[in-house]
Design a protein that fits this description.
Length: 60
């Protein structure tokens, strides 16, 4: 079962960054644990102008 993510892009951005900051050391581990399609998540956030920075472990 896939995790229910916020529909609003700004809420999604904030939610994912909070999870990365507080609970996960990488986007891979977040997506694996929550059963989220990483490619779709990255594409959805990229369509709103956000990109993932692996070194900082956050979208910006």
């Amino acid at each position: 079962m896939e995790y229910e993510l916020p529909k609003d892009i700004n809420m999604l951005f904030s939610f994912i960054n909070m999870k990365l900051r507080d609970e996960y050391s990488s986007l891979d581990s977040l997506c694996d644990d929550l059963n989220i399609n990483e490619e779709e998540l990255v594409h959805k956030l990229a369509s709103a102008g956000f990109e993932y920075n692996k070194e900082m472990n956050k979208f910006w």
